[in-house]
Amino acid sequence: CFDDSRCIKSPTDISVSLFLASPEASQEIYRENCSNGEILNSLQHVRPGGGFKPSFTIFEKCDVNGTNTHPVFAYLKDKLPYPDDDPSSLMQDPKFLVWSPINRTDVSWNFEKFLIGPEGEPFKRYSKKFPTIDIEPDIQRLSADPSCRDALQPW
């Protein structure tokens, strides 16, 4: 969830990216119904509310599955074809598969996550069920990896 994302800290302030993906963000049905401009206000005042302001960049809505998949998500899904913590399931109810073509590499639902290392290489993919706060050990692993150390850039 968005609240968990603000709690994640990198021990060395390295630049890592976490993409929270949602097939409903712009697919035809079951989509985020806020406009791009309304999303930040919704987060601040409705859910989670309480003046919440993300400490991370929120991108505009885009297709993450199907014929019009945004190139960033096509690349991420190619490099990390399924979540490490849930390699077998895509969607439990076929009525939610509203894009075409359908592939196992598709983002299955809200808050599927991609962790990107300091060189821009996809590191790990997590299912919607994986708590965002539990990604922190992987960020620490990335920061401790000697092969990444030269690429570490402060924010």
TrEMBL record:
SUPFAM superfamilies, sorted: Thioredoxin-like (SSF52833)
Statement: the UniProt record of this protein carries the keyword Iron: no
Enzyme class (EC, first level): oxidoreductase
GO terms under biological process: response to oxidative stress
Signal sequence interval, chain numbering: none
PROSITE patterns xrefs: GLUTATHIONE_PEROXID_3
Pfam families: GSHPx (PF00255)
GO molecular function: glutathione peroxidase activity
Domain of life: Eukaryota
UniProt KW keywords: Oxidoreductase, Peroxidase
E.C. numbers: 1.11.1.9
Similarity comment text for this entry: Belongs to the glutathione peroxidase family.
Subunit description: Homotetramer.
Protein name: glutathione peroxidase
Source taxonomy: Eukaryota, Metazoa, Chordata, Craniata, Vertebrata
